[in-house]
Design brief:
Chains A, B: InterPro entries: S-Me-THD-like_C, S-Me-THD_C_sf, S-Me-THD_N, S-Me-THD_N_sf. The structure is a homodimer of 355-residue chains. With 355 residues, chain A is α+β, with helices and mostly antiparallel strands. The first copy, chain A, is built from 10 helices and 17 strands. In chain A, helix 3 packs across helix 4.
Chain lengths: 355, 355
């Protein structure tokens, strides 16, 4: 158990945005919330998942919806805390701690906001190790844990509890529709997990990983060294290409941001990057170069900062890197939930690290 | 408190369909369920609302969604009972009785099915006195009672609790989206009402009214008398016209069945009937002849049976009658919720009974 410093949280925002692999929304608004809460004297502590008792109750939080909407309806730290309180009222127990469902993007910040208000620690773990667009794309779903209950909250005072879901996919469908009606963004508290479940199925130490990743980038920039080299070293990643964005195609469909970006590499080759919120597959001449569940990250070639699928635009100089996936998503059941076919691409997954 | 006979329930199906004013869905599938439950030896008792203690909890049930869907996914009496059980689990109390939100159409049968399974009585009352398409179109909304909580159930095992709603309109929006995702039909248990609330805001004795109306039609047919005259006498209604359906326009939009039927009266006049699930306004030469909240009923000219807006078709010989509205909907607040403007028609309500 250690108290997070203000610097840790700044680094978390940078690292989480990289782990967002283009999606998950920028952590920037969450960061602004956390700066304010720290200015007000609130503090957040980070808890080792191994310190959880098997019977502890852990709240799992996230903002659900279209990240773009948060540019109009700002992230409100009290809403996330409220989603946890509604869950406590529903299950009739208090939570020992709170954790992120996804460490990639803005949702890395959500447990911190809830923790600051509720004065409970944040567990150093998540259930994606990155960002993914759908509710069944988690280690908890791979582990076949219960998908329900879930609470969903909007700022007007509307609150919904999905008390039972036939499957994870049904939880996704039902909660997505509620979120859409709430204005395409909702604060949610996912199915509570026991300490035993978090220890068995959570991906440990991803908060620390994101903080360290962010620090590597910030330190490299401070020393005028190559930030991308620092990322690749910290995460044992692989550089796919450097080049220029020459075309972007983007459409908002069924609550997701879908499309593709076309890049021209410095060696004059054309690379296509598909996305569904997150980058899913990198193509060259119709053949996949890299794909989910490995993390495809598009970074500003100078600063090493992540570029979101909603922000990528013509003319940007970018470097595309690939970071390793958590082991659990490389299993048959993992690939079923988050492999290329889960995103509609009829190709087998092949690791860029095995070639 | 009296036990309903099998004949009462047959009559209820006929009377409720007339009070549906074209919407609410046919009570036929509900009737089939009740015949089966009565064959199995279950019985339902009807309770005078005045017999409720102020502090009694009353469950308010309905099927929500597109009536047409029930022709593929049959009404299941256990689903309605389950929606009540989920509400009991949520509020932590058992219900004293169950009542209909709308006595018009198939929802007149819903409390009977729940009552048969749960072995509690049905309160002889509802909150519409007819059928209306939206959640805020009830006496409970006119009385500004709390719109939440609501439970919504599908046959796959999905269950949602709308635990808080900013307004009645928000309850309508949120629960409608859930229902749409469940396949455009869901069994719902609306916000529980106390005995005091039912006595103050419910419309009393509408179950008995529907039974008597159905009996009047069935008796007249048995005696080869005019069933429509029997309805007008029982309900102090007014005959608007008799004629033939010459045109029907129907579209399913935003979860509702909208459109218009054009009738040619026996006097060669052209009458247009608009509908949103229920018949809303009758027009002649662009002037309103009759409108909601008064009950516009389109009946088969021979049998006196109601014709639903989803069933009306070219060539039918019909008689259009108007029945009086419950007093509460004629107040300014009532008209705001269910008057012509609530259905998008920019006209003032004028009673056919005052002219």
């Amino acid at each position: 158990m250690r108290e997070l410093s203000a610097d840790d949280i700044e680094a978390l925002a940078v690292g989480a945005w990289i782990l967002g692999t283009g999606g998950g929304g920028s952590p920037y608004h969450g960061l602004l919330n956390m700066r304010r809460l720290y200015d007000e004297g609130l503090r957040v502590t980070l808890m080792d998942p191994q310190a959880l008792a098997d019977g502890d109750d852990v709240a799992v939080v996230s903002y659900m919806g279209a990240p773009l909407v948060t540019q109009e309806r700002l992230v409100d730290s009290r809403m996330t805390a409220r989603s946890v309180e509604v869950m406590e009222e529903y299950i009739g127990r208090k939570f020992r701690a709170v954790m992120a469902i996804e460490i990639g993007g803005g949702n890395a910040m959500q447990p911190l906001m809830a923790a600051a208000h509720l004065k409970i620690p944040v567990v150093d773990a998540d259930a994606m190790g990155r960002a993914y667009p759908e509710a069944q794309m988690t280690t908890f779903a791979v582990g076949d844990l219960a998908p329900a209950p879930l609470t969903s909250i909007d700022p007007r005072g509307n609150e919904v509890i999905v008390s039972r879901a036939a499957t994870w996919k049904w939880m996704e469908r039902t909660s997505r529709k509620v979120c859409t009606e709430f204005g395409s963004i909702a604060a949610t508290c996912k199915a509570p997990r026991t300490g035993a479940e978090v220890k068995r199925w959570g991906i440990p130490y991803t908060t620390t990983k994101a903080i360290n990743l962010g620090k590597a980038v910030m330190d490299a920039n401070r020393r005028h060294e190559d930030p991308i080299a620092a990322i690749l070293k910290a995460e044992r990643g692989k550089r796919l290409l450097a080049g220029k964005v020459v075309e972007v195609e983007r459409r908002t469909t069924e609550g997701f941001l879908r499309g593709r970006a076309v890049l021209e590499s410095d060696g004059r080759e054309t690379i296509v990057l598909d996305f569904q919120n997150e980058w899913t597959v990198a193509w060259h001449d119709g053949r996949p170069l890299a794909s989910t569940p490995e993390l495809i990250c598009v970074l500003d070639s100078d600063s090493g900062e992540a570029i979101g699928t909603e922000m990528v635009r013509y003319g940007q100089r970018v470097t595309v890197i690939v970071l390793p996936s958590p082991e659990i998503f490389l299993t048959p059941r993992g690939l079923q939930n988050v492999g290329p076919r889960a995103f509609g691409h009829d190709i087998d997954f092949r690791s860029v690290f095995s070639s």
